[in-house]
Specification:
The chain is mainly β. About 5% of the residues lie in helices and about 30% in strands. It is built from one helix and three strands; from the N terminus they run αβββ. It has one helix spanning about 1-5; strands at about 15, 40-45, 50-55. Strands 1-3-2 form a three-stranded antiparallel sheet, with no helix packed on it. β2 and β3 form a beta hairpin. The longest helix is centred in the first third of the chain and has 5 residues, at about 1-5. The chain starts with a helix and ends in a 14-residue tail after the last strand.
């Protein structure tokens, strides 16, 4: 995954936030060589409290470029 992030080969990121607090864990992205700015383009909140977030790299476009854009 890190190689794809560093080479700019990922065009969208889907992240899910679960309503659970853990005392530890592993970083999702390790050894990323440069900051990657992202733009939130959509989201969905489920009855369980789960939140799905869709991001694109900021250089690809703005939320206005995507139908059904989030907030």
């Amino acid at each position: 995954l890190t190689t794809f992030v560093n080479e700019g080969l990922i065009d969208e990121y889907w992240l899910s936030v679960h309503p659970v607090i853990l005392g530890g864990g592993n970083p999702l992205f390790q050894n990323v060589t440069a900051r990657k700015n992202l733009k939130l383009v959509s989201h969905k909140v489920y009855d369980t409290g789960l939140v799905s977030l869709k991001y694109v790299p900021a250089k690809i476009g703005l939320a206005d470029d995507y139908p059904n854009s989030g907030p």
